[in-house]
Amino acid sequence: MSRFEPDDIYEYTGVVDVALSPDGERAAFVTSEYDPDEDRRRSSVFTVPTDGSRDPHRLTRASDASSPVWGPDGEKLGILAARERDVELTVGPQEEEAEDVDEDDAEDVGGDGSGDEGPKQQVWVYDLARGGDARQITDRDEGVRAFDFGPDGDRVVFDARDPTDEQSDRLETRRDDGPIEIERLNHKANGVGWLDDVTSYLFVASVDTRESHRLDDAYGSGSFEALSGLQPAWGPDDRIAFVANYADDAEDSAVYDVHTIDPDGSNRERVTDGGRFCMNPTWSPDGDRLAFIARDPPMNWYRPAEVHVADGDGIRPVSDGLDRTVALSAGVSWTDDNTLLASIGDEGRTRLVRCHADGSPAERVFDAQGEDRTFGAADATPNGVVGTLTTADAPPDLYALDGLADARRLTDLNAGLVEEYDLPTHERVTFENGDGDEVEAITFLPPGFDRDDPEPHPTVALVHGGPMSYDTPGFDLTRAFFTNAGYVVTCVNYRGSTSYGGDFAERLRGSRGELETDDVVSGVDHLVERGWADPDRLFCTGFSYGGITSAHVAVREDRFAAIAPEHGIYDFYSNFGTDDNHLWHEDEFGLPWENVETYRDISSITRVDEIDTPMLITAGEEDWRCPPTQAEQLYLSVKKQDVPAKLVVYQDEHHNIGDPERAIPRIETLLEWFETHDPAVADDEA
Known about the structure:
By secondary structure, the protein is α+β, with helices and mostly antiparallel strands.
């Protein structure tokens, strides 16, 4: 078999979203593919029958597409797509005022004033019964972020920015290199850019006529609004649910409430009580109950997020007995009027759980998953369940889960890749850290590795971000590249990781560096003791919080041959206010000017004089989560001490490593840095 090289990324297809039709007979899913001509990721929507009788059908071909939503009768499928304007909107009589628009004034203005003149993301609807191409339903100058069908399928509710004429003029000035003027507290958001004062609203549009009206009382407000949006969900009783924070301190709070409103914009009601961070509202089939995911307290990300249900009897958590975090991004699905399906992190894997609106204990389901497979996207209706499953050596594919007992494979998206390349195997490894706690690492092994009679291998400690996340045994491109280059890769689910219970995660709250370093190093030492890892050829890297931890490893340990912090924060004091995480840091550590010593203690830069390990430090030029100035500070501080160091800044890049123009040079640079400072390679060359 061939070695899996960075350029082979173009052969990989991922699955990022799935939606099951109301009758359970078809699934729509979104793929992420890599375009070598444009050197970027492309997303497409496919449909496939859940009985496995036909291969998947690529539904979208003209542009990137995402967010499939089925109409209530299953005959319509809506998507979000940024494609050329529907010809039906460009032919025939036009509005009179369109004749007087100057071409220079007609260009779209992006939400951050970036001047992107390409098509904006709009709602497009396929009539699957009649066939043919999708029909454009919305035509918003700044695009649409989310939508849902009404109970009869003849209307959609959507979330869109709606600048006034004065605001549009200011955004135009920004685009023309004018000053960026901001008075709101939250002034930037990663992946969005500099924020502005434009308000987003819910709109209701007719699928037939495209006519729409704005719901003036359903508008975006809250500290995370630029990233999370309003998340509209239209119920069977003709009420629309959405999330927002309408308190006076909304910009300085992590609270998000669930609200409901009539489709004519009247009778807005707050469902929740202003004390939770709520996301993903979903109506029960009969419309009597609302389910949503919530964290209480709202800013403590270490505590498990839980499924909640609101009805005439009040609001109650229905997954709290599991002591596991529910995936905020996955949402919940009703399988009947009392039963919901959700995804949780459970000891280093993602699995499905069944929750009950009446308060009966939640239970784990689909035991056939085993410990080696992990779920990705999933969806359910009263007529079925679909989800993606993956293992270390099998990229994700879509499955129909009959009765939550058996899995029927519906796709084979990476058959060529699996047949041609040596993909890693894995083993779950447990060990004791310095405090005597049991910690788990998922360790990925290179081709030909003999577990019974191992040869010590160069080993990479690959530290996950978050920290409130977890590594799983699922397929991962970075792990595959490293193992194919001959490395053992160990992914330690250190204290602070979710999926092992709230107490395990919350041990990290209020500290940085010491606990994670202890866990990562203890995991590496365990592999050395087993004869898997060569003690002279140890390396460490991680992205985001993994970069933060990698830098802390560098100031506390000298056993690694080279370390590569990627997109991290190294001076929390100077970082405050330059990223989009000030609420989190204030909640956990207080304000920096009131807690100077705390901020110095959690920052690796404070002990930078103890670093003597060669350091590769990377950043994104437009990363507002972990700003590039942090990488500059660490690089210069290390370089001043004559420690071998290299700074890599990816231009026009935010907190991201996924696009091929970023992913390929990233892994090549990491491999080159480790090889350069590998003593065994140096000995061979000598």
